[in-house]
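Re: [help] complex structure
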Amino acid sequence: MSRLQVAIVDYGMGNLRSVANAFKAVAPSISVAVTSDPEQIAQAERVVFPGQGAMPDCIRELDARHLRQAVIDATQQKPFLGICIGLQMLFEHSEEGDVPGLGVYRGEVKRFPADKMHDEQGAKLKVPHMGWSQVHQTQAHALWSEIPDQARFYYVHSYYVAPEEATLTAATTAYPFDYTGAIARDNVFAVQFHPEKSANAGLQLLRNFVNWKP
Amino acid sequence: MGCAKRIIPCLDVTDGRVVKGVNFLELRDAGDPVEIAQRYNDQGADELTFLDITASSDNRDLILHIIERVAEQIFIPLTVGGGVRKVEDVRRLLNAGADKVSINTTAVLNPQVVEDAASRFGSQCIVVAIDAKKVDNQPFEWEVFTHGGRNPTGLDAVKWAQKMVSLGAGELLVTSMDRDGTKIGFNNPLNKAISDAVDVPLIASGGVGNLQHLVDGVTMGGADAVLAASIFHYGEFTVQQAKDYMREHGLEVR
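Output below.
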C-alpha cells in the first residue's frame, strides 16, 4: 500500500465524502482517502480529523475503532487539520454529554448559553449556529494564505471551544460574543467551521493545508 | 454580528429533471439539475435544496446520482428531501453527498423516524419540512398538510414545529401552501409564529415573487434563510441580485 498524502480519519460518524471531494477538487493529483486503518493514518503525510454529530458518540466510535492513539500521534507528528467536532475533541472536556475529550489541549467545549443568544437589537439568535459567519484571523498563518480577513465560512454547531491558552486561538467569530473559530499550534490547525462546505474561501484553506510545511 | 441570512434556491426534481409547479400542480420543465446547481453556486447561493417529487418508485434512485454529481463539484451545503420514509433513506442520501435531509410526510406518519435519524446522524443534518395552510375550521390558525399538500392532518403547525424540534430537528423548512407558486410573498405571520416558538433556524418557503419578499421574509417573518425557486429558475433575478438587494436593505448577507 502506497503512502497516502492526505488521510481523512473515518470513525463511522457521518459523511466524509464531501471532505474527500473537496480535497480532490483542489488537489486532483494527490492521493486522498477516507480511512479507519490506524496504520494508514500513521503512515500518511497529512491527517484530516473531521466530525459531525454529538461528541460523546464521536469519542465512543473513535475508541471502538482503536483510532484514539493514531489521532493523538498525528497531532504531534505531521500536518493535521481538525474540522468541527474534530476540533472539539482535541480539548479536555465537553459539556455535551459531560465527556472527556482527547486532551491534546487544555480547555473546555461549551454550549452556547441560552441567556446570551440575542443580537444588539435584542433579536433572538438561533442554536445551532447554522450559516455563514465572518472569521476574524487573530494570528498570521500559512492556512490563511490568500484568504481575506473576515471572510465568511459555513458553520453548523451548538458547542464551541474555550481554550485555556489564549495564544492557541487563530481566529474568532462573533455569535454574538467572540469565540474561537480556529486554533493553531505547531503542526496542528483546527477549525470549527466547515471548509469543505465554504465555497471558495473553504477550498482555499484546504489548498493551503495541502501545501503547508509546518 | 451574527450569521448572514441565507439565500437558498430550491430545485424540485422529478425523473432527473428540475421542474416548477404552481400551487403544487402544473409542472413545467426548468432544466438539468447539475447545470442549474452550478449556475446558482457561481451566483453565490449560500446553500441548495433539492426536493425529489418523483412519483414513481422506479426512478427514486435518480436523485442519489444527481446528488453524487453535484457534491463532486459544488462545495456549499446541500439539502435533499422528498420521499424520505426510513432512517435508511436518510443514510443513503447523506452517503450520496447530502449535508442535510429534509423529512416531511414521514415526520407526520412516523415521528420516530425524525428522532431516530437525529440521534443517529445528528440534529445538524435533520430538517423537518412543514407544509402549512391557513384554516378556519380548527381552533388554531395554520394546519399541517402532507402528501404534497393534499392531506390535512389536524395538527397545529406551531405546536407541530415545537414537537419536531424536541425530537431532534435541527432546522425547519416552512412552506405556506396558500402562497406556494403565487408570487405574492411569504406567509410572514406563519413564519414569525413558528420562528418565535423554536430555537432552531427557520427557512421560509412559498410565494416569492420579487426581491422585497425576501427582505420581508427576514424582517417580518423572522426567517434565518429564504428559499425560492421560480424567480431564479426563469432568470428573473440572479442570486447575486437578491443578495445585493437584501444588503441594500440592511440585512447581513454573504
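The first helix of chain B runs from residue 33 to 42.
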